[in-house]
Structure prediction request, 221 residues.
Amino acid sequence: MTEAGQTPLPLVVLISGSGSNLQAIIDACANGQVNAEIKAVISNKADAFGLKRAQRANIPTHVLDHSLFGNRQSFDRALKKLIDGYQPGLLVLAGFMRILTAEFVNHYLGRMLNIHPSLLPNFQGLNTHQRAIESGVKQHGVSVHFVTPELDGGPVVNRAIIDVDSSDTTESLGKRVLAEEHKIYPEAVSWFANGRLQLNGNQAMLDGEPVPALEKYANET
Ligand code: NHR
Ligand code: GAR
Prediction:
């Protein structure tokens, strides 16, 4: 619940696509589940549907097209300048598809979250649902983690686990995972907004207790 009298945490959300996780956070801010306010949504793709979701919610939007920059460093510096104009307390990656430089990540260390569609540390990187099916794992899911320079390697703060069944396809699995994403991401943002979640070295702390990590499967592809 939102604590009465507490100023909402200012957020900036980065997207590249559909923005269904953005929508879940917009809705959770609107209904009081999350004590935060999205100050801006930034996409590296002009045609991202999430921009329309933000506009519908009267949230300022920006497009910063990475292809117009010569290298990652110049893109990340422009992105940082744009973000810092909003002075966010938390930066939220929601289906943002560009790898970020260590310089950028370190500037937001401890105040940047990402949602990744696997049970980290398993299936870092892309095409996670397909790789999970091909590996024959019995369980799959989704993780929210603090972003560190190591791609998809930052400490996990929240996760949902789902059973994989033999009839699952990439699509059926992705659909069930996405439904869980829309629950666990607003929950993690609410923890952070209420001061319950911190990055302590390379460990996420929730209510002063370490969030447990999972083992890496031996048979991952
Ligand atoms: N940056 C750092 N430094 N650390 C992380 O943990 C990051 C990150 C940037 C994005 C999201 C991540 C995911 O959840 C994320 C985590 C994009 C790629 C990728 O390969 C990989 C992981 C993630 C996001 N991107 C290609 C690139 O060259 C482009 C792919 C495309 O445009 O479709 O940047 O999975
Ligand atoms: C989500 O499944 C998210 O976990 C994943 O992309 C989808 C974005 O959906 N993120 C990544 O793969 C990051 N590399 P959305 O735009 O509807 O929120």
